[in-house]
Design brief:
With 108 residues, the protein is mostly beta strands. It is built from no helices and 7 strands.
Length: 108
Amino acid sequence: MSGRRIELASVPQEPEAPGIAGHHADVDGTRWALVTYEPRVLREEFCEEPHSGFVVRGSIAYEFEAGGERMELGAGDAFTLSSSPHRGRAGDEGVTLFLIDAEVGHGG
């Protein structure tokens, strides 16, 4: 087979944290996810999982446990996050992200 369709939206949505839920699929040992944050929700814990992602709608600001400049992202932005502890806060309209993680079973 030369391709594979991944129907994330058809996978049941699962809660990840208060105000955050996602559709998740294991694609050849890597977690792919469509994650939605409600407006202004802050992920309480820091995540150490590396991600690549794309902001589908809305906006999010990532902060880093070590401090430094926040990474502000909006619809249409692609991004990477390293294993440096990070967490996101959704903007006023919430946010939907497409994420690809380095390992199955981790969120961010």
